[in-house]
Automatic annotation (TrEMBL):
Lineage of source species: Bacteria, Bacillati, Actinomycetota, Coriobacteriia, Coriobacteriales
Record keywords, A-Z: Transferase
Residues spanning the signal sequence: none
Organism: Senegalimassilia anaerobia
Entry's Gene Ontology molecular function annotations: acyltransferase activity, transferring groups other than amino-acyl groups
UniProt name for this protein: GNAT family N-acetyltransferase
């Protein structure tokens, strides 16, 4: 099954994205980082306010991932870093029932094409060290671990991640 990428552009799109993010995050992350950190991170990084801020102030781009039947199965987003000639993939999230359908491969292909069209040499992302599913998927798509980072995100929480990169 193929997917297409629909740009998040309007206020209505942003509202739909925030609701989708809330749903996916509360389904997936509590088992890994707990309820309290999930709630905090959704509010700080995935809420409507955070999405609007990232798009307006940090040039983030978001896309809905839509299957052949027209169903939104997830979302992705990030931003170009012209100073490093890389694209930061901030978010790749799929609904629970849509995982395992090879959509991640198509999303990475989308970013590969995007990087090439913008003359960027690579893409990178961060992945939680406890997210075994994500780590395996990214290795399988050709990413390599380039760094291990732990960032204080406030409220007593930290993001303990690997930074993974792939040439475009």
């Amino acid at each position: 099954m193929g997917v297409r990428f629909v740009a998040v552009e309007t206020d209505e799109d942003q509202e739909k994205l925030a609701k989708l993010a809330d749903e996916i995050w509360h389904e997936y992350w509590p088992a890994i980082i707990g309820d309290a950190q999930t709630d905090y991170m959704v509010e700080k990084f995935q809420s409507l306010e955070a999405i609007k801020r990232d798009m307006a102030e940090h040039a983030y781009e978001y896309w809905f991932v839509v299957d052949e039947a027209g169903k939104t199965v997830g979302y992705t987003g990030g931003c170009e870093e012209s100073e490093t000639s890389r694209y930061f993939i901030s978010k790749i999230y799929l609904l629970a029932e849509e995982r395992g359908k090879h959509y991640a491969s198509q999303i990475i292909g989308f970013y590969t094409d995007l990087c090439r069209s913008r003359d960027l040499h690579s893409m990178y992302l961060t992945v939680n060290k406890q997210n075994d599913l994500g780590i395996r998927a990214y290795y399988g798509k050709g990413f390599v671990t380039i760094e291990s980072v732990k960032n204080d995100i406030g409220n007593g929480f930290a993001m303990d991640d690997y930074v993974m990169e792939k040439e475009a």
